[in-house]
């Protein structure tokens, strides 16, 4: 049986992002984001309801400040009391998990989309994803970039402007490019 490009994407396998089914999902997400990103005068509850329409999971007392950008939304889970500041970008071709009470600064990028290292496969336009997991009570400073496949442990701190290329242990503080434990 042949799997759809969406099934391949969700499994983290090579897939064609230009497939019609995925383009349709991207268009639906763009419309959903436009509604959320322009609903700045709505109550927190009404804005949360908009988020709940598409996110995989959204906990209680979550605050996400517009604008936010993502590919699909349905691969993003946000824990209780989490906070995402303005201009966050989440490329969610596979799962992105954000734990309870985590605080994410403005302009943070969380990237799951990755590309083949072999030039011929990359030239064919194929890509794949690696999930990102951010634990509970994590603080990620503004402008940080979290690369595909990274796990950030509970109670960790990621300094502003850092590029996180490797897993961050629970309780660690990392900063720099590439981010290192300090």
Low-pLDDT windows of residues: none
Query: In the CATH hierarchy, what is the superfamily?
Result: Hexapeptide repeat proteins
Inertia-based shape: globular
CATH topology: UDP N-Acetylglucosamine Acyltransferase, domain 1
Give the distance, in angstroms, between the N- and C-terminal Cα atoms: 50 Å
Q: Using the coordinates above, name the CATH class.
A: Mainly Beta
Number of domains: 1
Secondary structure: helix percent: 10-25%
Q: Percent of residues in beta strands? A: 25-35%
User: What is the strand arrangement across the widest sheet?
Assistant: 2-5-8-13-16-18-19
Query: Total helix count?
Result: 4
Main beta-sheet annotation: 7 strands, mixed
The total count of strands amounts to 19
């Amino acid at each position: 049986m042949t799997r759809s490009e969406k099934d391949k994407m969700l499994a983290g396998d090579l897939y064609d992002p230009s497939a019609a089914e995925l383009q349709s999902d991207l268009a639906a997400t763009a419309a959903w984001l436009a509604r959320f990103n322009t609903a700045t005068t709505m109550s927190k509850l009404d804005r949360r309801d908009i988020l709940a329409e598409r996110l995989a999971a959204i906990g209680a007392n979550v605050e996400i400040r517009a604008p936010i950008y993502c590919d699909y939304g349905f691969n993003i889970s946000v824990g209780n009391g989490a906070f995402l500041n303005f201009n966050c970008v989440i490329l969610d071709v596979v799962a992105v998990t954000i734990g309870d009470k985590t605080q994410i600064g403005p302009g943070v990028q969380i990237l799951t989309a990755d590309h083949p290292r072999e030039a011929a496969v990359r030239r064919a336009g194929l890509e794949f994803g690696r999930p990102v997991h951010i634990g509970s009570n994590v603080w990620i400073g503004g402008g940080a970039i979290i690369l595909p496949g990274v796990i950030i442990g509970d109670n960790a701190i990621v300094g502003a402007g850092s590029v996180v290329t490797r897993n961050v242990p629970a309780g660690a503080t990392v900063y720099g490019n590439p981010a290192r434990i300090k």
